[in-house]
Specification:
Cofactor: Zn(2+)
Strand order of the largest sheet: 1-2-12-11-10-9-8-6
Number of helices: 25
Pfam families: Meth_synt_1, Meth_synt_2
Catalytic activity: 5-methyltetrahydropteroyltri-L-glutamate + L-homocysteine = tetrahydropteroyltri-L-glutamate + L-methionine
Distance between the termini: 58 Å
Helix content: 25-40%
Shape: globular
Structural class: alpha/beta
EC number: 2.1.1.14
CATH topology of one domain: TIM Barrel
CATH class of one domain: Alpha Beta
CATH architecture of one domain: Alpha-Beta Barrel
Keywords: Amino-acid biosynthesis, Metal-binding, Methionine biosynthesis, Methyltransferase, Transferase, Zinc
Amino acid sequence: MPLLRSFAPRSTLSSSSLSLLLRCSCAHLPQRKMASHIVGYPRIGPKRELKFGLESFWDGRAVLKICSSHARCSARTVFVSWREIGFDTYFSMARGNASVPAMEMTKWFDTNYHFIVPELGPDTKFSYSSHKAVSEYKEAKALGIDTVPVLIGPVTYLLLSKPAKGVEKSFPLLSLLGSILPIYKEVIAELKAAGALWIQFDEPILVLDLDSHQLAAFSKSYSELKSSFSGLNVLIETYFADVPAEAYKAITSLNGISGYGFDLVRGTNTLDVIRSMGFPSGKYLFAGVVDGRNIWANDLAASINTLQALEAVVGKDKLVVSTSCSLMHTAVDLVNETKLDSEIKSWLAFAAQKVVEVNELAKALAGEKVEAFFSANAAAHASRKSSPRVTNDEVQKAAAALTDSNHCRTTNVSARLDAQQKKLNLPILPTTTLGSFPQTTELRRVRREYKANKITEEEYVKAIKEEINEVVKLQEELDIDVLVHGEPERNDMVEYFGEQLSGFAFTVNGWVQSYGSRCVKPPIIYGDVSRPKAMTVFWSSMAQSMTSRPMKGMLTGPVTILNWSFVRNDQPRSETCYQIALAIKKEVEDLEAAGVQVIQIDEAALREGLPLRKSEQSVYLDWAVHSFRITNCSVKDTTQIHTHMCYSNFNDIIHSIIDMDADVISIENSRSNEKLLAVFREGIKYGAGIGPGVYDIHSPRIPQQKRLRIESTKC
């Protein structure tokens, strides 16, 4: 059976219609030999073909079928060129249009992938408005590929939704189960009629700390769907963390289910749960031993040990080797990295290579072990462990010494704001932007030619200086109070810094989808991190010399650099974060010494790294907040420290945000109906400055001045 090299895009479930999600998941199920399975695969294409197709469509340069062909072009992605709800509606939900703002967007659990939050209420009427799942299954089947359709489970869908505007915040979303399950039954019936043998229901919500009512709703949902499962094999898939014992009991007690999938990479205790609580006889266990969230080659010997331990519980004929989650969270194919250092490259595995790892593990368990493959894997791990480029003793010692202090600033925020106001003399409601201005084709050309040595350093600096000057003039004309230089010299808010820090490696095509057509290329942190020289001082000083108004120095914080990189897995993440924090601290001190009075240290991804289980969250928040404080603990009271967070829920970390002790925090406020802003004024004492973002830069919609004025007065 051929391996599917790309999988269908997710759909959204709207408030008035149900467009059920499908990823065509690759599987060999069930067979006499050891079975293997892929939870999901990157949909963007090896070189971002889907991105360019989508943007061509949005720009009016392509029709729907052309957009669809780009999605297919590299790897048989099945992407239909029409939907009953229509592309205009579909994309307006995500991007807004001239009359309607975009829907709220937030992070998919603790990943950097985003989803559009469904808005529901007691009057919501679900309808089967898209046959996408069935159409894509049939298309794959016509290509000779028998796939496993993947649907977001009903409980995960509802619990990730929110009450629509005008609906009470306390509205019980699970009360809509009775309305939504009939739509699931329709889709299941069509998939069965089309010949589907397996259907995968993703229920990652089960790794959270659900209460008894929510678990009962989960059990009830699949009990009601049971009659629809006749003649089908059904897989319940979980990922991103351990499944709590009570949730495990609820999952494995279901009738009519053929198999259960668990993340055994991030779910470090799941093996013990399975051993202690047992596993239902006659059911398949999909063992997620290949990491879907990182780019390091699997430790095949360790995975074999885990799989053999599971064999003793469930039996060899009921064990399926799988990825820990969808591979959409990792890069596509290492083959496309022709410029990557050969030693570092030998330590890596992207999505295509992880598919091979899954199959090789399955073959080994079936008695068909390829010794050469396992030997090469062991050699790569030994090389990485012994490589001198990984460890820097000086950096290790400096990071270890950080535990001797909490690195707080010596003066409280109220006193600092007074001192800063006397020096900066800002108006009552000052304005600023978050940093980067649009990257033009010309700017990208200049950077590309400089990197390729086609233009001199003098020519490069001249071109960037001219762009900064234009950005400064524009902001002054708009009467912005605290300016930014626009960051024309930067490619990405993480990659730019990583390129100037030791311990980082970079790819050419290691793209990962963040949302829609937005893709990021995470750096690879392979070793200890340090700052050889100043990274931003030259450009920030130049920009400040062009204006008498305050010019922000723009930095990415250590937690965000960590969470938006592929991080080494041979030491605790906290140690790596402390190393990055020390590097950023040196940059902050140099900016201040150069006369920069306002410094923004973005921590857009602080919430993203929060563990999904509450019992693990305090440890993460302690070292994450500590890392941020390290970066700016030594600055003067008159130096104003900003931070920025976006597209996250702050309710459960608001006290940690306060503990960060920034002078000003900027937040997303345009998509969330002021939900994020409300956190800072309901039941807490927040004494620092706050900047609600009132202009959605990810939407082509231009908000009305009246709306901007109304939002501004509410801060």
